[in-house]
Every structure is written in C-alpha cells, then in structure tokens.
Design brief:
By secondary structure, this protein is mostly beta strands. The chain is built from two helices and 29 strands. It has three domains: about 1-70 and about 365-400, no CATH class; about 75-150 and about 305-360, no CATH class; about 155-280, Flagellar hook protein FlgE (Tick-borne Encephalitis virus Glycoprotein, domain 1, Sandwich). This is Flagellar hook protein FlgE.
C-alpha cells in the first residue's frame, strides 16, 4: 500500500512541478493566465467496512485551474497593441473557421488590411458608420481599407464665423472685407471660393461670392444681402439664404454642385474684421496613414487628407464560467459546455472591461511565488520518494528474515 501511496505522491508532485514550470516559462507571455494544480486525496472503500473507516491510498490531481486575474498593463506605444483592462476576451476567427478567445492584444495588419494575431486569427468586431456608431449587432471580421484611397467627398456646407466691423461705412474702402475657402468637387479637386463683404447701410451688408475656374477666369456665384440685429448678432430672418452652385472643374463629366453657407455665428461688433472659423465638409481622396483604437473599441482610421473615419468596433466576449474554457495554446481558449456560450458585447458595456491602446496585458504569473511553490513541490517529491525508499527497506528486512 505504501508503494502505491508514494507513487501517487510522486506522480502528483511531478505534475505540480510541470504546472509550476509552465507558469515560470510563460512569465513574459502577453495575456497568459497562471495555472495551479489542485490535489485530491484517494481512498479505498468497501461496502460495510467496520466503523466506516476507509484506507487512504494516496493523492491525485483533481484539476489544473487557471487564475483569470488582471495582469499589469505595459505601455508599448504601438498602434496595433491593445490591452483589456477588466473583464472580457478578444474573439478571434481562426484560419480553420473556428472561434478562439484571447487576452493577447498584439495585433498586426496583413496586406489586405485584416487585423490578425500571431496565430493568424482575425479580430472580430461590429460594423460602424464613419462616426463610430454601431450599425449592426452581428459580429464581422474586422479589416481596414488599406487597398486604396478613400473617395473624395463633395462639399455641401461652408461654416463661417467672423466679425464685420460695425464702425465701417459703405462710402469708405474700409467697408469692404473678404476671405477665401477651398471647396471640393465630386472627384476631390479643390476650387477656391471667395466671399467679399460690403456694407450697404446700418446693419446691412452684401456678400458677393465668386470662384476661379481652371482658365483663371473669375466666375460669379451670386450676391446675397444679410442683416444684423441691434445687438450685433446675425439676423437670419431678414437675411438671404446664402446658397450657390459651384462649377465643377471636371469639364468632361462634372456637374455644378450646390453649396450652403452657414452664417449663424457671425457678428457685427465695433472691432476689426476677423475670421475665427472657416470650414467646409468636403475633402479630397486620402490614403490610410495611421489608426487609433478608442477605449470603447472604436477603430479610428486617419488619412492623408486630414480625415478620420471609424472602421469598426472591437467586440469583447465574456463567459459565465471562465474556468470552463479549454486552453488550446497560442494564448487562446475555446468555449466548452462547462464555460457556457460566449456572451458578446462591446468594451465598456455591462461588465465588459475597457480597452487601452498602445499597451499589452502582461502575464499574471507571480514569479516570486512560483519559485517558492517550486521549492515546496520539490520537497514533496523528495518526501514521497522517501516513503517508497522506507517501504523498500522494510520489505528487504522481511525477505531477509530466516
């Protein structure tokens, strides 16, 4: 019996050392969760044993459990590194079509713009509009538009904020001011539009809009009368809508396109003419230059034309019983019956953690504790070996009796 007890102890201690060694080996593995061997005693029982006493016959490893505690976050500065701060796992669509779940956020872009991990799994997420608002709740494999430039956007609105000097008079040259803004046609060609402001009477001004075509000829776009209230604010009710058609520079297939000028924040105060804001909503084509991942998982792509557009939102999933996940290597787990089905969501929703871009989650292995555990396991192994040695000596004594 002592031989069996000692052998079971040796096997259990050996497996415990394997687990400890695995933890130590992965102390620097991103997203790794430490494991521990959990022991269970063994008994030999028989029906109707006297006094209900059962003989202990050794020990076994009941299970190897993982500790899904938060690891430290290390700042890397890489755009494609993402750490989960809190609950949740990244969902990865693997090359064989299966789904794996990981805390390892060391992602890369391939030549097609797909967001991959080191095992070739593609990051799952939700589609969004250009502002980052989710447009569907069925997850998709995320990718970035790296194959070509984003198309140009035709200008529709100019927003202007400026002050016209209330001290100016229509009879003086100082009563005329002007500014210019670039607008974009259907193909992204820049067209300079000039607006001149000439005082007509007290609280009354006229805007003259013009553009310059490709031949350098100034083309009129219209004259518009605007008014101001006695307090110097814009009088929209007594002003003309400032709307005009800009001539596209694409002579072969272009068409005039309407542009509206928003003047609601202009003023007429007794201070010099100054422009504080002059923007428009068009832009030329642009190539992807960089990206930024927000705390809520929205991926913002930045382009060479100065635009930033959302390219999707990273999905997180959680489980009722994370201990039931089965590790499959490569910093990944798969769902099992014990773990339950994955519960999907977005970062920051419900009990899901937030994301930290430019960072990774370190292994949660406590190296000092593991080294102490290793010494303890070694002593246990030696002690079990000693029981076998002692039993062997006893058996030798019996066999040598005459």
């Amino acid at each position: 019996m002592a031989f069996q007890q000692g052998l079971s102890g040796l096997n259990a201690a050996s497996r415990n050392l394997d687990v400890i060694g695995h933890n130590i080996a992965n102390a620097n593995t991103v997203g790794m969760k430490s494991s521990r061997a959990e022991f269970a005693e063994l008994y030999a029982s028989s029906v109707g044993a006297s006094g209900g006493i059962s003989q202990g016959i050794g020990v076994s490893i009941a299970t190897v459990s993982q500790a899904f505690t938060q690891g430290n976050l290390t700042i890397t500065g890489r755009d494609m590194d993402v750490a989960i701060n809190g609950n949740g796992f990244f969902a990865m669509s693997m090359p064989d079509g299966s789904l794996q779940y990981s805390r390892d956020g060391q992602f890369k872009l391939d030549r097609d713009g797909r967001i991959l991990n080191n095992q070739g799994g593609q990051l799952m997420g939700y589609p969004t509009d250009v502002d980052g608002n989710r447009t569907a709740f069925d997850p998709i494999a995320l990718s970035l538009p790296t194959g070509g430039p984003i198309p140009a956007n035709e200008t529709k609105t100019i927003t202007a904020e400026f002050n016209l000097d209330a001290r100016a008079t229509g009879a003086e040259p100082a009563g005329t001011y002007g500014t210019t803004v670039l607008v974009y046609d259907q193909q992204g060609k820049a067209i300079p539009v000039a607006m001149a402001f000439e005082k007509q009477a007290n609280n009354q001004w006229q805007i003259t809009a013009t553009m310059t075509d490709e031949a350098g000829v100034v083309q009129p776009l219209g004259n518009f009368n605007i008014a101001f209230n006695p307090d110097g604010s814009f009088d929209e009710a007594n002003s003309d809508p400032v709307e005009f058609d800009v001539l596209s520079l694409n002579a072969a297939n272009g068409a005039d396109f309407p542009v509206t000028v928003n003047l609601e924040n202009i003023t007429q105060f007794a201070s010099p003419f100054s422009v504080t804001n002059l923007t428009q909503d068009g832009y030329p084509p642009g190539e992807l230059t960089s990206l930024q991942i927000e705390d809520n998982g929205v991926i913002m792509a930045r382009y060479s034309n100065g635009e930033s557009q959302a390219a999707g939102q990273i999905q997180l999933v959680n489980f009722r019983n994370a201990q039931g996940l089965a590790p499959v290597g490569g910093n990944g787990w798969v769902a099992t019956f014990a773990s339950g089905a994955p519960i999907p969501g977005a970062p920051g929703e419900g009990n899901m953690g937030m994301l930290k871009a430019g960072a990774v989650e370190d292994s949660n292995v406590d190296l000092t504790a593991e080294l102490v555990n290793m010494m303890t396991a070694q002593r246990a192994y030696q002690a079990n070996a000693q029981t076998i040695k002692t039993q062997d000596q006893i058996m030798s004594t019996l066999l040598n009796m005459r």
